[in-house]
Amino acid sequence: MSHGRSGHSLAYQWFWKSAFVVSLIVAGWLLYYSTQQIDYVWRWYRVPQYFVAEQVVETRSMLMGEVASIVAKGDKSVVTVADGEERESYTVPTEGLRVSTGDTIYAGDVLGTETHTKPGILLQGAWLTLYISAVAIVIGIVLGLVTGLARLSENPFFRYWAITYIELIRGSPLLVQIYIWYFVLGTLVNNLLQQKGIPQIPTLWFGIASMAVFTGAYVAEIVRAGIQSIHRGQREAARSLGMNAFQSMRHIVLPQALRRILPPLAGQFISLIKDSSLLGIIAIRELTKATREVVTVSLQPFEIFFVCALLYLILTFGLSLLTNYLERKIVQS
């Protein structure tokens, strides 16, 4: 009789796999049935416009007069409006041309239109979420690595500062830290910059700073635990080969520790992507805030929040796949 990896028979494996599929179908049907029992009109067809939006740009005449001439130049046309000796020319797309030669024009009349395609508000929010998370992750890794090493330092100055930073950040909610960064530190810094005549720092960077500092404290503890998990004999062997403390840490300890800290680091970064939803409270239009704005305008809470959850799932699942790929690469090397 054949057995799977866990030692159970193939029949056992197939039975429980089939049970999982059936339970998944039942859960989906129950969700669908529940949605049919409420007085709600589903409008999924309206969702795509929040991913790719079309904007109609109108070219209007600033002069009252007559269309003196229309000269085609490729896919554009130059419309000249004349009022006696006064003339004004406007370049509009030939396809969107709304006037002909000799037409009487009043100030504010539309001469032509042009349609521009741009990312919708949900796509913009997803991109901003990804951008904030990526920048905060990079800064958080650097900050966490330095703090983690300082946490293990024999120098009391560096060690105590590292402990203070880690405990302060981990001991307070991220929401409170965002408020402090924006309303307290942001106000102080921007007031000082304004007094010196220096441009103020945008809100976005205070949001990124709060996320990076928050992540750095957790990364520091992950780094510390990873380094301490490497047997002391590794460092002693490196010293016996003539390496100093820095060289043994760089060439011996950290490469081994990286393999062990990568999974918890991935979990921390996935949490960071989801925690970025809190930045909406300081008017940063990340994915969750963009979703709330769309719901307010469209009055479609069910469809839009389902789509929002799906976008977060895509971002976090993509990061999980990337982490698994890096983990395999590190193991192979």
From TrEMBL:
What InterPro entries is this protein classified in?
AA_ABC_transptr_permease_3TM, ArtM/GltK/GlnP/TcyL/YhdX-like, MetI-like, MetI-like_sf
Entry annotated with the keyword Chaperone: no
Coarse class of the protein's main subcellular location: membrane
Annotated membrane-spanning segments are 12-32, 128-150, 204-223, 304-326
Gene3D superfamilies associated with the record: MetI-like (1.10.3720.10)
List the membrane topology term(s). Multi-pass membrane protein
Task: Tell me which UniProt keywords the record has, alphabetically.
Answer: Amino-acid transport, Cell membrane, Membrane, Transmembrane, Transmembrane helix, Transport
Name the GO cellular-component terms.
ATP-binding cassette (ABC) transporter complex
Q: Name one Pfam family in it.
A: BPD_transp_1
Asked if Membrane is a keyword of the record, the answer is yes
Domain named ABC transmembrane type-1: which ranges?
126-323
Q: Which GO terms describe its molecular function?
A: transmembrane transporter activity
Which GO BP terms sit in this record?
A: amino acid transport
Q: Taxonomically, which superkingdom? A: Bacteria
Write out the annotated subcellular location: Cell inner membrane; Cell membrane
The protein's role, per its UniProt record: Part of the binding-protein-dependent transport system for glutamine; probably responsible for the translocation of the substrate across the membrane.
Name recorded for this polypeptide: Putative glutamine transport system permease protein GlnP
Q: Which organism is it from?
A: Alkalidesulfovibrio alkalitolerans DSM 16529
